[in-house]
Design brief:
Blueprint: H1 2-24, H2 39-52, H3 57-64, H4 71-78, H5 87-94, H6 97-109, H7 111-121, H8 125-136, E1 145-146, H9 147-156, H10 161-177, E2 186-187, H11 200-206, H12 222-235, H13 249-253, H14 261-273
Antiparallel strand pairs: 1-2
Helix pairs in contact: 5-14, 6-8, 7-12, 8-14, 9-10, 10-11
The structure holds calcium ion.
Amino acid sequence: MMFNNRGSRALRLVAICLTLLFVASPAMAAKCGNTSKGFGRWLVQFKKEARKRGISNRTLKRALRGVRYDYSVIKKDRNQKHFKLSFAKFYKMRVSPGGLAKGRSMMRRYRKLLNRIYRVYGVQPRIITAIWSLETFYGGYTGNKPIFRSLATLAYDCRRHKMFTQNLYAALRVVQRGDMHPKRMKGAWAGELGQTQFMAKNYYRYAVDFDGDGKRNLIRSKADALASTANLLRAHGWKRGGCYQPGCHNFNVLNAWNKSRVYQRTIAKMASQL
Ligand code: CA
């Protein structure tokens, strides 16, 4: 009798513990923080959650080994200058006559590729060229920050915790899929990657292998980067060869590329000038 009682009490205790564990688990989600202090603890917890989402140990090791909190990224994040410039000023700053001439020569040089992209995705060569110019000046500067360090820092940081956590998962999935070696994944300070600066979430969802080497490489492959850009626009409703000036359907699709209206108008105007 004594034994039975004790036994059932023990069982009850186990049941209570299990319940507590279950109830407590949402609160155990990797917690954001605003100083470097909690980063290590956050990283351990983040990896646990990543494993639950199907990210392998091997991927986690390859991508996140030695990753550290990068204060320079936070500093950049806090000092962001948003588009306060007028369209006219912004356009003048970003699109020079020399830039347009270069754009026209790039369109000639990559005519075959751009036409092939147009046939498959329906996005005009001039739109792709304008985006390519505005994002990295034709792949000239794609950024040199290791994106896992940036994304982990911003995922841990509280300001845009959720959005960057999702991007960090996506970046890990890009590695796991075999698109790129994590060491080669260098980009802008906030983790934008490649010749047209894709966030990892878009990379995972919209990147295509257009040069046929079996990998989606938006840094090294112009074909992959430009076709992926067209694929993203098509996925958001781009109408084949349609008008893209303000007021037209395709102009609204540019919002999927960049939320800034000034930026959208810059793409549209530059494209028409090309
Ligand atoms: Ca490829």
